[in-house]
Design a protein that fits this description.
The complex is a heterodimer of chains A (347) and B (846). Chain A has 4 domains: 9-62 and 230-266, no CATH class; 67-91 and 180-219, Alpha-Beta Plaits, CATH 3.30.70; 93-176, Gyrase A, domain 2, CATH 3.30.1360.140; 283-330, DNA polymerase, domain 1. Chain A is 43% helix and 18% strand. Chain A has 16 helices and 13 strands. In chain A, the strands form 4 sheets. Chain A has a 4-stranded antiparallel sheet with strand order 10-11-3-12. In chain A, strand 5 and strand 6 (110-115) form a beta hairpin. In chain A, helix 13 (286-292) packs antiparallel against helix 14 and helix 13 (286-292) crosses helix 15. The longest helix of chain A is centred in the last third of the chain and has 18 residues, at 231-248. In chain A, 39% of the residues are buried. With 846 residues, chain B is α+β, with helices and mostly antiparallel strands. Chain B folds into 6 domains: 85-204, no CATH class; 224-318, no CATH class; 323-483, Barwin-like endoglucanases (Beta Barrel), CATH 2.40.40.20; 500-621, Enzyme I, Chain A, domain 2 (Orthogonal Bundle), CATH 1.10.274; 628-786, Orthogonal Bundle (Topoisomerase I, Chain A, domain 4), CATH 1.10.132; 810-845, no CATH class. Chain B is built from 26 helices and 28 strands. In chain B, strands 10-16-15-18-9-17 form a 6-stranded mixed sheet. In chain B, strands 11-14-12-13 form a 4-stranded antiparallel sheet. A 3-stranded antiparallel sheet of chain B has the order 3-4-5. Chain B is globular. Classes of the chains: A alpha+beta (347), B alpha+beta (846). At the A-B interface, helix 1, strand 1, helix 2, helix 12 and helix 13 of A face strand 1, helix 10, helix 20, helix 25 and strand 26 of B.
């Protein structure tokens, strides 16, 4: 049985590769830990282990610890001071973090922001700069400077509600740095090159910052990657993150299984979760959906819209007692008429 | 051999006419049995609906309890009732149509867009995806807007505010809409308008959502049970139906008697309540209907739903015949492909023997046998089954002709499926050859236990006998362990040798292990090898050469492990020690090499040989572990005190620098939490130091250390915990803190950072734990137990989701991956089209 030709290693027709991939994830996942780890260097804790796998498989919009790894351009990479300069452009400085106090007057739709002098100096900001930024971002406002405070008036007197949400948004606005980047740290790798790790992800913003190596920007937030680099990049990111997490737990799973899951989540052009709102919930078969979750809902809707269950998948064929359509179940064997005659002749 | 194959199944709603067509009886009496215990005609157990009592005959089909599958009946509702499951779609329809002319609230332009969208939607196969998405988007935008339309574009009637209140109430501008009003409204919506909303009018007319007659399921669906006392206990559905009928009757009487409107409305609402809970007793906003014993009733929706519901419990999970289950135990004289089956099981399980002219003589032997192995049943050509007994044996023997099927008892070498739960991967079900053995347990080879994740501490396993030739062939040629050596997860072998065998293998193949001629002969004879390897100096035989006897001739193989290089040249182990990495859990590269190059049968033999050989070697060595191996020598005791002292000093240093305010905080931590993190990390290293010390101090003359160091069983950390100290305990990844106020136990000082009062356990298992140490250790143990049980629950659900998402994927003939609808998932499986089990090998070849 020496293996000379390549074909020998090929998968066989009909192999239920999806089920095999799911087995490969599910069987060892009981050995994984359910704890998030604090990693030194980065401010926030990093989600690892089973919770991270779940986060990826569920395609959660808000993940617990979004991170970006930013490599620097060659001229910056070896220079700590320059790296620090780049880093400073990342960390967001929210308006509310600079405040000493604020008052809202919703009747007159005005808000007074009292800034802390020291904090302003620390982040190297002036009131003028802030009011300019705010006016550029939010329409229909007037900003008046009074000492260390900024009096903001909402010009269009439409609704109290919209003014209120606007004021909240204003206080959560990043005057400096990138929106959503809570913290950035400069790290050094084994080659002595400096790079930046940020907690929070904002790829679109990171690309605009000078000194960032645009070809080696990495984020672990799949929707950010999808938005900036597209579905193929998101697919690779999901696969790599899954692989990384599995490796960290010392669980060895072949990359083909991980890749298949990532492809299953992304082949439609958008990121779909593996749960009831994603791949499993969008199956063509009514029975497959009903036997998974939300049984009654699926039957009721099927009857209203006159759905037809094509009975092509595994679940529904098990349900009605037919042979399933994967593996050896796909093979149909027939005998030639001539050969059948031979058998008869022997009789 | 499927006679009728279901091609597809269509879902529709039942119209009142359809209900009447299906119904065999109009039920009028809200009761079940009369005083004599006889079913009341027109009652809920009317005999026209089928029978379940033995002896009675069905009045519709004339069948008996077992042959009649039951017939539907119906109840005429005096007033229409809203079907509670359809309220959402009713609400949508009411919102989307005019309250006056009942036309859809779209003007002509919008209508054109919508029509276009529907058409693209229906014939989307040959359309490009973008267009479908675009038109769908337009349609969605249109339908979304419908509820905010103020004036009907068709008749100009102003639209009043519509409100829906759970569970079944609709208000138009604050006035309650009665079900009959809603029914009129819905029945006036035209088919064309329904089409625009995506509703298939052939499947569903919206007025059918308002029930005028209620379908009553046959009694087979809601059988009553007779208690020991002779009392009858009716099914929950029957109870609910009785109530519906009772209220329905009262409502009718009140209407006939001309009762005031309020009373009628109240009853009407009560009827609505009962119908609602009849369909779904967990409808939000409705009080749960309860049994007399306050147990909530299990009505229609509850029967279908969830893990114990009809779909998952009865339809996706099926019960089978021809299966057996009992405790498993090990048997090293079986091969990995065999399963030892107790006589009791073999006698009771049957395999069909399809009689042909070629095997008719063999078949007759089974029939004529009066004891094992005999035949249990014979099945004639017509399909009638006859039990073989002493009286009819002779006749049956003459009767048998080709085409008959004989159900004979299980014999050696029959193929059976063997399974252990939880069935987490495909190797949890494999096919084994039967070996009938005395005893009462199922037996399997120790090496075959790993893929099942089985051990022999009381585990039970299941056995299934495939009943068709196709399934037997499939099991025999695809599912036997010898073909399933490599894991589909990562390509590493799943059949390998473990524990004592690894130790024996080490002892056998390590340098300078020599055996006398007698020893060599006994070892090899045990494998059935009657040749001798080449003798070396003074007539001794080296372990390496003995091991080489199991290798295939001409094998050339090279590998590396932690003992150094391993070289096999021309079928002889010239250099290196065989360990875990070559034949065990840590890769088993030699096994996978032999499996690929020499095939499953040789590999099976090889595996059995090395298992037997290595055990012999361990036996000759006299491998055993005793308390002595963990004995505390004075040297160890003093070193233990040193290690503990040095780590306590380190901790104190940290605490002091914190107190002096010199401690630099880690990014994102406060000073206090930095101290905690550092203390936890530092004290955790104490164990590692102790491991290093033991590694230096002990050598392979200590058998416990030998086993741990070569990876046969246990690790050095276990030894540390037994003979030195347990080390830092952790609760939730931190030092344990909870307990009393500011301290864990009342024996400690309050608010101290002292290692010993924060889970640094310095006693060991050999000497025993001090009371405080035992508490701290128990806290750590409890924490890890709790997390473990939580992980199984969480990962189990993730597994279910993944399986449901991916189970339809298959590899097509061009090696692409497709789902049930033929949609392309991957163009080439895994990027290379390689079988997952052969992944490692294939990449080595490159």
């Amino acid at each position: 049985m020496s293996a000379k030709n390549e074909k020998k290693f090929n998968v066989v027709y009909g192999e239920a590769v999806g089920a095999v991939a799911a087995h490969s994830f599910g069987e060892p996942s009981t050995q994984m830990v359910l704890r998030t780890f604090h990693s030194a260097g980065i401010a926030s804790s990093v989600v690892t282990g089973l919770p991270r796998i779940l986060e990826l498989v569920d395609a959660r919009k808000k993940q617990q610890s979004p991170l970006m790894t930013i490599r620097l351009d060659k001229s910056y990479a070896k220079n700590y001071e320059k790296a620090k300069q780049v880093k400073a452009q990342f960390e967001e400085v929210l308006v509310k973090s600079l405040l000493e106090n604020f008052t809202e007057d919703l009747k007159n739709v005005t808000m007074v922001l009292e800034f802390d002098k020291e904090k302003l100096a620390q982040s190297d900001l002036t009131l003028k700069f802030i009011s300019g930024k705010l006016q550029a971002k939010f329409e229909n406002i007037d900003a008046e400077q009074e000492g260390h405070s900024l009096k903001i008036k909402y010009k269009s007197k439409k609704e109290m509600k919209s003014a209120r949400t606007m004021f909240v948004n204003m206080r959560n606005f990043a005057v400096k740095g990138l929106q959503g980047i809570k913290k950035a740290t400069v790290q050094q790798d084994d080659d002595g090159e400096f790079y930046i790790i940020t907690s929070g992800s904002n790829m679109a913003g990171a690309l605009d910052i000078e000194g960032v190596d645009k070809e080696h920007l990495y984020s672990n937030d799949m929707f950010d990657v999808l938005k900036v680099y597209g579905i193929e990049a998101a697919r690779n990111m999901i696969a790599n993150e899954l692989k990384k997490t599995m490796d960290e737990e010392n669980v060895s799973v072949g990359f083909r299984h991980i890749g298949l899951l990532a492809d299953a989540m992304t082949y439609g052009g958008s990121i779909k979760s593996a749960g009831r709102h994603g791949i499993a919930g969008n199956k063509a078969s009514v029975f497959a959906r009903a036997s998974y979750e939300e049984t009654v809902k699926h039957f009721v809707n099927a009857s209203v819209f006159g759905e037809r269950d094509p009975l092509k998948g595994v679940s529904e064929n098990i349900l009605i007692g037919k042979q399933i359509n994967v593996g050896t179940g796909r093979i149909k064997l027939a005998i030639k008429k001539e050969d059948l005659k031979k058998v008869d002749a022997e009789k | 051999m499927q006679a009728e194959i279901i091609d597809n199944i269509r879902f529709t709603t039942l119209s009142p006419e359809a209900i009447k067509r299906m119904s065999v009886a109009k039920l009028i009496v809200p009761d079940t049995y009369n005083e004599d215990g006889y079913p009341i005609d027109g009652g809920l157990v009317d005999q026209r609906l089928g029978v379940i009592d033995p002896g009675l005959k069905c009045k519709t089909c004339g069948g008996r309890a077992k042959t009649c599958m039951g017939h539907f009946g119906h109840i005429e509702l005096v007033r229409p009732i809203i079907h509670p499951e359809f309220t959402k779609i009713i609400y949508l329809l009411l919102q989307s149509t005019c309250e006056k002319c009942h036309r859809i609230l779209l003007d002509e332009n919008q209508m054109a867009v919508a029509k276009d969208a529907i058409e693209t939607f229906v014939t989307s196969d040959d359309m490009d995806v973008d267009r479908v998405a675009e038109t769908n988007g337009k349609l969605a935008a249109l339908t979304k807007k419908l509820k905010s339309v103020k004036k009907c574009p068709s008749c100009g009637a102003p639209q009043q505010k519509l409100k829906f209140e759970r569970p079944t109430f609709f208000y138009l501008n604050g006035n309650k809409l009665k079900p009959d009003e809603i029914k009129d409204w819905l029945s006036n919506i035209s088919n064309d308008d329904l089409k625009l909303l995506g509703i298939d009018y052939k499947a569903t007319r919206p007025e059918w959502f308002i029930l005028t007659s209620l379908l009553v399921p046959p009694i087979n669906v809601r059988p009553s049970i007779t208690l020991e006392t002779g009392e009858r206990s009716e099914d929950d559905l029957t109870h609910k139906l009785v109530e519906i009928m009772r209220i329905n009757q009262r409502l009718e009487q009140d209407i006939d008697a001309g009762a005031p409107q309020i009373i009628i409305d109240d009853l009407w609402e009560l009827l609505q309540y009962h119908v609602t809970t009849y369909f779904n007793n967990e409808t939000p906003g409705v009080p749960v209907a309860r049994h007399r014993s306050t147990r909530p009733l299990k009505t229609l929706a509850q029967r279908l739903k969830g893990k114990e519901g009809r779909l998952r419990y009865n339809l996706s999970g099926k019960r089978v015949n021809f299966s057996a289950r009992t405790v498993i135990s090990s048997d090293s004289s079986l091969t990995v492909n065999q399963v030892g089956v107790p006589m009791r099981i073999a006698e009771n399980m049957t395999v069909p023997l399809y009689v042909t002219k070629w095997n008719i003589e063999k078949a007759k032997v089974y029939v004529s046998n009066t004891s094992y192995p005999k035949s249990i049943n014979i099945i004639t050509r017509e399909g009638s089954r006859k039990r073989v007994n002493d009286t009819n044996q002779e006749d049956l023997l003459k009767e048998i002709v080709p085409g008959y099927i004989i159900e004979r008892q299980l014999v050696d070498n029959d193929i059976v499926l063997f399974n252990r739960q939880p069935t987490l991967h495909r190797l949890s079900i494999m096919a084994h050859r039967v070996k009938v053995l005395p005893g009462k347990t199922l037996r399997l080879h120790v090496s075959a236990a790993f893929p099942y994740n089985a051990d022999f501490d009381g585990d039970e396993m299941n056995l299934h006998v495939p009943q068709t030739l196709e399934s037997q062939a499939e099991a025999r040629y695809l599912m036997q362990p010898k073909y399933q050596v490599l894991s589909p997860r990562n390509g590493n072998p799943l059949l390998y040798i473990e524990e004592d065998e690894i130790a024996g293998m080490y002892l056998l193949t390590k340098d300078n292990s020599y055996y006398t001629k007698e020893e060599t002969m006994s070892m090899l004879a045990n494998l059935g090898i009657y040749e001798m390897p080449k003798a070396e100096k003074n007539g001794m035989y080296s372990g390496k050469s003995i091991f080489s006897m199991t290798l295939p001739n001409g094998l050339n193989f090279e590998s590396k492990n932690k003992h150094g290089k391993v070289v096999i040249k021309n079928g002889l182990l010239v250099e290196g020690i065989i360990d875990n990495k070559l034949v065990g859990e840590k890769g088993g590269v030699l096994i996978s090499h032999i499996f690929i190059e020499y095939g499953p049968d040789f590999n099976e033999k090889f595996l059995l040989n090395i298992a037997k050989l290595s055990l012999r070697a361990a036996y000759i060595y006299g491998l055993t572990v005793s308390v002595k191996d963990y004995y505390l020598s004075s040297k160890i005791i003093s070193e233990r005190a040193n290690i503990i002292k040095s780590y306590e000093a380190k901790a104190l240093e940290l605490i002091n620098s914190y107190k002096a305010g010199k401690l630099e905080s880690l990014p994102g931590y406060t000073k206090k939490s930095t101290l905690e993190v550092l203390l936890y990390a530092t004290l955790g290293q104490a164990r590692d130091t102790a491991v290093q010390y033991l590694n230096k101090e002990l050598n392979q003359s200590n058998n416990a250390y030998l086993l741990a160091s070569i990876g046969a069983r246990g690790n050095i950390l276990n030894m540390v915990q037994m003979s030195m100290f347990l080390g830092q305990q952790s609760v939730r990844g931190k030092r344990p803190t909870r307990g009393y106020n500011g301290r864990m136990l009342p024996y400690f000082k309050r608010n101290t950072k002292d290692p010993k009062s924060k889970g640094f356990v310095t006693s060991n298992f050999f000497e025993g734990l001090t009371p405080t140490d035992m508490y701290q250790h128990a806290m750590g143990s409890r924490d890890s137990q709790m997390t473990k049980s939580l992980v199984t629950a969480v990962s189990g659900y993730m597994y279910r989701r993944l399986i449901n998402a991916m189970m339809d994927f298959y590899v097509d003939s061009d090696l692409s991956v497709k789902d049930a609808n033929g949609e392309l998932i991957q163009t080439l499986y895994g990027g290379d089209g390689i079988d997952p089990t052969l992944e490692v090998i294939a990449h080595q070849k490159e």
